[in-house]
Structure formats: structure tokens, C-alpha cells
Amino acid sequence: MNGTPEPAAEPHNSPSRLGTTAERHATILASVWAALTFLAGALLFLFLHPKGIWALMFVGVTVAVVWLVWNRLLAKVRRRKKLLAAPFPVEWEAVLQRDVAFFRALPDPEKTRFRNELKIFLGEKMVTGIRTTIDTRTKVLVGASAVIPIFGFPSWEWDQINEVLVYPSRFGKDFNLDGDGDGNILGMVGTGAMNRIMILVKPDLIQGFKNTTDKRNVGVHEFAHLVDKSDGVIDGLPAVGLDREAIGPWIELVRRKMQEISDNDSDIHAYALTNEAEFFSVVSEYFFERPGLMKQKHPELFATLQKVFRQDLGSRLQEIRREMTAGPKKFGRNSPCPCGSGKKFKKCCLQKME
Ligand SMILES: [Zn+2]
Ligand SMILES: [Zn+2]
User: What are the DSSP calls for 221-276, one per residue?
Assistant: First the structure.
């Protein structure tokens, strides 16, 4: 492990996320299959002559099956293209501009890519309010929490999750809101019967984005657990970004950093001591919210996380710092709406957001 960040392994304009690659693969497969069927049918026709009608039926039935399978494969791609073709909602833009410093610090072409990732995530996954309504702000912040940690993986698929449940307040170990009030969980990734479900608490989700300096963001924290889970287990060993040789040094680095926390000699939140998996999610929050601070205080950890997430935040530290400090003051009720309409915020997107 050396201290220099590596460039992103995948080009950021990779079309795979838009389904173009998947569409091409499906079409090639279907064409080859249909061609082979025709060839087999033609041979059968010659062989069976004059009962060639059976060969024709064989060709007909097989081609119909190929067509059905191809259509199914392409359904997802078509849905995505439709999602991407729709205009980006102005009030979503307003939420990103006001609440998501990570987004504001991106260069323009990357902002476009962020919006597209958001459209796909929110178009394909359910965000459901449990005894609370899902307003635009909540919905967009759930989506932003998902996009931030996977923004370095243009072909990422969120197969690990189907639905995000949003609770109005913190909850107990049994997911119960009616408990005796001892619930203090602000987010979790489900296992067992709750597999593919995430729970986030609305006020904590919003607070995670509102406070841009405390190195905490529960949305990013929970989705970082799912990045960790992409190899099947949540164990603090994110296989996506760490190659085999990097695993040993990572375990050693985690051990050292956890020791610093127990020695009271670290600014990493003590919750990271829970276990290696929590360590990973806690330092991920820190990495995405205060990359400059992490680079300064934990250079080795910072360099490793740049590789894990394939994001070169080090090259954008100035922009991130600028947006982190300017953000909250930038958009008052009477200032121009962050969606760019030119109208006053209170008369434009503010009401639609909350
Ligand atoms: Zn956690
Ligand atoms: Zn507006």
C-alpha cells in the first residue's frame, strides 16, 4: 500500500450503467441463438424431406422462445432508458443543490452522471415511509446516500437492496417503534427476513447531510455496509476495491486505527470500535464528508479508501471544502431557488421539498 491514489479503474463515461452493454450482449446472444436454430432447421428440412413441415415448426417455436427471452432481458434496459430520458425534476435539483455538498463539489459532467444514477436508483428501488410521509427531500437524500459511495463504480448494480423503509424516529432492536422508548438505532441493513431492506430514520438522515462537518452521515454509513456486502458478507472487508495483496495491509491498518481510538488518540467516532464492519462504515462517512481532514489526520487510511471506493477525492479537496463550508448559508428563503428557475426559493421549490 503506498500513499498515491490510483486513477479510477473504470472510465467515468462507461455506458454500462445506461444498459447499452447489457442490451448489446442480449442482442448478440439472441442473434446467435436464432441463427443456429435456422441452420439446424434447414438441415432438418433437407433430412426430413418431404416431411419438412416438422422442421419448420421446430424453427418457428424456437425462434419464438428466443424472442421472448430476449425481450425479457431488454425490459430492464428499456425501463432504464425511459427513466433517463425523463427530465430531472427541478425540486430534486433544488435538494441536491441545497443539501448535498458532495454533489455541488462535482465538475459539471459528473453532476450529470450523479443525476442519472439518482434517477435509476429512485426509479428502481422503493422508498417507503413507515408512519411518516416521504417528501421530496427525504427521497432524494436516500438516493444521494446510495449514489455517493458507488460513484466510482459506473457499472454498479444495487442488487443488495430492494427497498428503503423510512422511520419517523429511532427504533429498538426488534424494529419496533412502539417500544418503551429505549430504541436508539438510527439506521440498519436488514438480514434474514429483512434481507434487501434498509431502515433509515428521517431526522437522522436529514441531519447527516445538514451537518457537513461532524464526519457523520447515517445514509452513507448504511450504504457503505452494502458496498462491504457486495462480496456476500458485511465484515469490513470490501472485496470490490481491495485486491488480494491489499487485504493483509488493510486488516493491519484497521487494527492500528482501532487501537488509536481505544487509546483516546483519534478523531474517528468511537462507534467504529464496535467491530471491523462498523469501523469500515464509520470511516466511510468520514471519508466522504471530510476528505481533506482525513487526508491530513489519517493519510494512509485516506489513500486506501480512495482505492476502495475508486474515487479521487484528493483531486477535489478545494471544491469539497468550499461547498462544505458555504453550503448551509447559501440558500435562504428569499435567495434565488437552487433549482435555477430564477424565482425566490420560498415561491419555487421550497414547498415541494418538505
Ligand atoms: Zn453500521
Ligand atoms: Zn425551484
Answer: HHHHHHHHGGGS--SS--TTT--HHHHHHHHHHHHHHHHHHHTT---S-GGGGS-H
